[in-house]
Each structure stands twice: as C-alpha cells, then as structure tokens.
Amino acid sequence: MILDISMWIWIPLALAIILVFINQTKASFALLGITLIGAIIEQRLNVVGLAGIAVGLLVAYKTPSLEKKWQLGAYLFIFLWCIALFLHLIPGFNNAKVLDAVVTGPLSVPFTLYLNLDKPLILFGLLLAYPALLGSKVSINKKALVYTAIPLFSLLPLAWGLGALKPEFTIPNWWWVFALNNLLLTCVAEEAFFRGFIQQSLSKRFGWIAGVAVASVLFGAAHIGGGLLLVVFATLAGVGYGLAFHYSSRLWVAVAFHFLFNFMHLVFFTYPIMK
C-alpha cells in the first residue's frame, strides 16, 4: 500500500461527497474548493486541469437557467465532459496510486488502484447541471428492492458457474482503502452519471423502462476493456442498480447496491478476475 502526505486532499473531497447526499450543497462546494487548492499545492493538479474543471462547472452552473434551445447543447457538453473525466482525457491531473499490482488471494490476478481526482468531479458538475440528480423523497418500494437484490447478487455465483470467477474468501489488509475509494470515488460518480443523470432524464421523457435499459447498456459498454463477458455482466448489474434507483427514487440507494455488489465480489470471489 502506497501512502504519502499529499493524499490529505482526498479527505475534504470525501467529506464534500458525503455532504452532497445530506443536502449541504454550499458546504460541499466549499470543501471541493479546499480540495482543488490543496491539489494544486501538492502538485496533484495543474492549471490546465483546473481550467478544464472550471469550464465544466461553469457550463453546468449555467445550464438550468438557459433557454430550451441552448440547453440541449449544454447537456451534450456536460455529457462529453463527464466522459472525458471518466476516461482521464482531461490533462493536468496527477492521480495517486495507492495499490500497485496487489492480489486478494492466490487465485486472483494482480490489480492496481488509484485515488482519482478527476472522476469524482462528475458528481459536482451533474449536481449543478441537473438539480434532480439525487432523486426525490417519494416512498421507497422496499419489497421491490428485495426482489431486485436477489437476482442482482446472484450474478456473482452465476459468474462462477460460467467460469469467470471462483470462490475465494479474503479480507486483505487494504480492504478499507478499497472500500472508501470504491464507495465515494467510484460508485458515486458512476451512479450519478448513469442513473441520476442518464436514466432519470430518459425516464422522464420516454418512460422508466427505456431509461433503465439505455443506462444499463451504456454502463455495460463502459466496461468493454474487460471483454464481452464483462460487458454482459456489467449490463445486467446495471439493470439491478437502475431498478434500485427506480424503486427508491434515491441515488444513494443505487450507490449502496453498487458498492455492496463490488465489496461482496472482493471478499467472497476472485478479484477482479481469476487467474
């Protein structure tokens, strides 16, 4: 595990993300500002990266107040900006490597983990551009969530049956780094983009089935680097996360389902895949 003093900047970032989900938006953006200033001081961000952030957040801030004829173009820009952050295409970021070629167990392949500074910014941009991002406070359909969880978490033993994974119970000493990173920096950003933004906006226009389907297919396609089988399983998992969002109307529920799935994968099966 690789830790250094410059990684303190991810502490205010993590707190900023948590504050978003308890509707403390002003405090959240204040902590984001501290994060970015600290990132420049610690040379985790340069002026080029800061400019990319500023442009994206400025367009996002202006988007809800634009006339309808301009909003579509603004949303397209935000969509592409988010993709660029996902793929680390905006220069100027020096993300921190915390795990280097570690293995969870003898049956698993090595993997490397970074604390990303760019990807989590998706949450803040979408929060400005799409105020309904976090969902609504309608009653949660708890029974439907249970029925959603059963097939979703059955995907892991199904992957075992198909030969993609093997059971391997491990709790590595770096589990807490994985958990914090996966929950706050990975799952939040991905669910904000695919469920809070894409699924929710499409559902309002074309119905919830279309919203879940399109968001799930796009989520699966985002995993193309892992091969066709991973795309299929990611798409099916995306359906589960999408239904969790649909039946709860709350982004945090989709984030929780996503994180629990990933953490169960880490603890009970070969991670990320078997040798």
TrEMBL record:
<keyword id="KW-0812">Transmembrane</keyword>
<feature type="transmembrane region" description="Helical">
    <location>
        <begin position="72"/>
        <end position="91"/>
    </location>
</feature>
<protein>
    <submittedName>
        <fullName>CAAX amino protease</fullName>
    </submittedName>
</protein>
<feature type="transmembrane region" description="Helical">
    <location>
        <begin position="206"/>
        <end position="239"/>
    </location>
</feature>
<keyword id="KW-0378">Hydrolase</keyword>
<feature type="transmembrane region" description="Helical">
    <location>
        <begin position="29"/>
        <end position="60"/>
    </location>
</feature>
<feature type="transmembrane region" description="Helical">
    <location>
        <begin position="111"/>
        <end position="132"/>
    </location>
</feature>
<dbReference type="GO" id="GO:0004175">
    <property type="term" value="F:endopeptidase activity"/>
</dbReference>
<feature type="transmembrane region" description="Helical">
    <location>
        <begin position="174"/>
        <end position="194"/>
    </location>
</feature>
<feature type="transmembrane region" description="Helical">
    <location>
        <begin position="251"/>
        <end position="271"/>
    </location>
</feature>
<dbReference type="Pfam" id="PF02517">
    <property type="entry name" value="Rce1-like"/>
</dbReference>
<dbReference type="GO" id="GO:0080120">
    <property type="term" value="P:CAAX-box protein maturation"/>
</dbReference>
<keyword id="KW-0472">Membrane</keyword>
<feature type="domain" description="CAAX prenyl protease 2/Lysostaphin resistance protein A-like">
    <location>
        <begin position="173"/>
        <end position="264"/>
    </location>
</feature>
<feature type="transmembrane region" description="Helical">
    <location>
        <begin position="7"/>
        <end position="23"/>
    </location>
</feature>
<keyword id="KW-1133">Transmembrane helix</keyword>
<dbReference type="InterPro" id="IPR003675">
    <property type="entry name" value="Rce1/LyrA-like_dom"/>
</dbReference>
<feature type="transmembrane region" description="Helical">
    <location>
        <begin position="144"/>
        <end position="162"/>
    </location>
</feature>
<dbReference type="GO" id="GO:0006508">
    <property type="term" value="P:proteolysis"/>
</dbReference>
<keyword id="KW-0645">Protease</keyword>
